[in-house]
Amino acid sequence: MNGTLFASDAFPIAKIDRRLTSSLVEHLGRGVYGGIFDPGNVLADADGYREDVIQAIKELQVPMIRYPGGNFVSGHNWEDGIGPKDQRPQQIDLAWKSIETNQFGLDEFMAWLQKINAQPMMAVNLGTRGIPEACHLLEYCNMTTDTHWANQRRKNGHPEPYAVKTWCLGNEMDANWQIGHKTAHEYGELVNETAKAMKLMDPTIETIVCGSSNEATPTFGKWELKVLDECYDNVDYISMHQYYDKPDHGTMHHIAKAIRMDQFINSVVALCDAAKAFKKSDKVLNISFDEWNVWYHSNDDTAKVSPWQEAPRLLEDQYDFQDALLVGSSLITLLKHADRVKIACFAQLVNVIAPIMTSSTGMFKQTIFYPIMHVSKYARGTVLRTNLQSDHYDVPEFGHVPYLDAIVVQNTDNDYTVFAINRHQTDAMHLKLNLGQTQFHVLNHICYQGPNPHFQNSEESQCVPHQLNSTYNDLTLPAFSWNVIRLRKK
Ligand code: AHR
After folding, report:
1. Cα four-point dihedral sign 372, 377, 381, 382
2. What is the pLDDT of residues 187-211, one digit of tens each?
3. N or C: which end of the chain has fewer CB within 10 A?
4. Model-level pTM?
5. Number of neighbouring beta carbons within 10 Å of residue 389
6. Comparing C-alpha atoms, which of 280, 145, 128, 275 is closest to residue 200?
7. Catalytic pick among 26, 108, 133, 291
8. Burial of 167 per CB tally in 10 Å (0-12, 13-18, 19+)
């Protein structure tokens, strides 16, 4: 089977925002406790942070972490997670029907970010709370004034402000499962006033308004237009969330689902531009795709967990190889939209629908870890418009699906990286690269190919990427594989 890829530096899409491979850490299940924070475990450092997990996150080179949720944020009082640990209240978390000990809070999160070299992306509670609490949190994080919350930060041992730039104003506020769910009108007004107040305090911040919680919700579109009508001038991004469900229509349909992400982004871009036109605004509103992943493997186990436990096993999906190809294809899709998608968070990071899984004695990297790591490491620079030719197959919902999915990134004047998937389950694809007149040589070709679509990594058995000996004129994408081809001009 043959595939051809055409791209040229004469046709750039956009410079890639480093924040495209950000992630989410939520107080949910073992995401924090037993995941990143595990005091007393021999694998944790003196402050209680799991060192094996820090090492794996550093390999992912995650630039920014959204925190503390997710649904959790909509019932959370951030003040309960600061100050002396023996005085922090133990509480009910209504979002996940769990017990929150508050032993890990804002200052522990900031200290952990230093260890993994990442920036914070803070979410404020606009479910059960409002403008004052959001402003107090901003004051604690960013202000140098001689005022109550800035002084509390100093008292807690942090004289310098955290300078948090990126702020999510609530989480999935359209969703009926959200604590403190609001109508579009109520939420739009609240966001406008909250963003206005926060920007009065610190004009350097950027704010993200919640778009719809998913593309299938009946209010999708209407929600975006109404909310943006209320708050367009005071927000900088609109959020998108998307989780892919189980492969009800088979593997070939499952690995094509990033087409939904592509259509969803096109729709939200159109809605942002419509809002811009209604407002007669000069401002282009960009997208923060701040939750996305595959999520279905753990549903039955999660349903059996009894409520009101500390750090129960929730949403512990075990990903397989077909999920890794879908995640790879989603990353290619996000790169294709780098002109409008500036932030994206794969959700989540550890144990909860995550690339990294821990036990009390170790950790392992799920299949989806590898495409995320490759894109985080090598998608630096400018995405080029990439045209593809290959055979296709047909599935319901998507019609013709090409076997080849790919994108080209120009890293520097001389270095390029091609990310490519061969979706064919049995046949290798000979890939012809057409990158203009220039000749290239292959620096390396990394290939990730699982033994079968249903293969899952575990602590005992791991499928990892390997190197292929390829040349520019002789490139083969093995059947059902994810590939990273790094090129240098001759
Ligand atoms: O990531 C899991 C949950 O999915 C988040 O808490 C919520 O925002 C979304 O519905």
Report:
1. negative
2. 999 999 999 999 999 999 999 999 9
3. C
4. 0.97
5. 14
6. 145
7. 291
8. buried
